[in-house]
Amino acid sequence: PASGRQHGAQAMIEPIHIAFDVAAPPAHAFDVWTARIAQWWPADHTVSATPGLTVVLEGRAGGRIFERTLEGVEHEWGEVTVWEPPRRLAYLWHLRRDRADATEVEIRFVDRGDSTTRVEIEHRGWERLGTDGGSWRDRNEGGWATLLPHYRAAVSADANEPTATTIRQPA
Predict the structure, then answer these.
(1) What span, in angstroms and rounded, lies between the C-alpha atoms of 88 and 76?
(2) pLDDT tens digits, one per residue of 161-171
(3) DSSP the chain
């Protein structure tokens, strides 16, 4: 078993629930999270933390989520389990963990009817980490708090642009 993981019944650990509004329609909010992830995901939230790396989220059920360094080294982060653009996305998440310890992230993009979108995130499955579950949940809660401002800024920065079909590369 992975470090800190024990077999047997584990008490449920409360999922992380986050919800916020962005000033963009759901298709744009979904596109920024998925196809444009390389534009806003900060290097300090990666495995290698190297300059010039690319973050990739393959847009399909079964798609990989990973980082690729300039040298071509890839670090797996997760796997897309639900792909329902522009309403819902879910994935197994194991950044800096063994794949067997993957938690689950589900994101809903809810149309508010006024050109805004409610982004609802649930990050669950901490029990599978055994005795590490509670501390890993707390660490991830802090990670979400520092990650999401980057996403919100990216949505706002280009909310009036047409939806992109390719990822822009940093200059």
Answers:
(1) 22
(2) 544 433 344 44
(3) --TT---S-----PPEEEEEEESS-HHHHHHHHTTTHHHH--GGGSSS--TT-EEEE-SSTT-EEEEE-TT--EEEEEEEEEEETTTEEEEEE-TTS-GGG-EEEEEEEEE-SSS-EEEEEEEE-GGGGGGGHHHHHHHHHHHHHHHHHHHHHHHHHTTTSPPPSSPPPP-
Averaged pLDDT, 140-147: 96
Residues 6 or more apart from 168 whose CB is under 8 A from it?
A: 36, 38, 39
* pLDDT at residue 124 tops 60: yes
- If pLDDT is split at 50, 70 and 90, which confidence band does 157 have? confident
User: What pTM was estimated for this model as a whole?
Assistant: 0.86
For 60-79, letters b (16+ CB in 10 Å) and e give eeebebbbbbeeeeeeebbb
pLDDT, tens digit (0-9, with 9 covering 90-100), for 9-37: 568 999 999 999 999 999 999 999 999 99
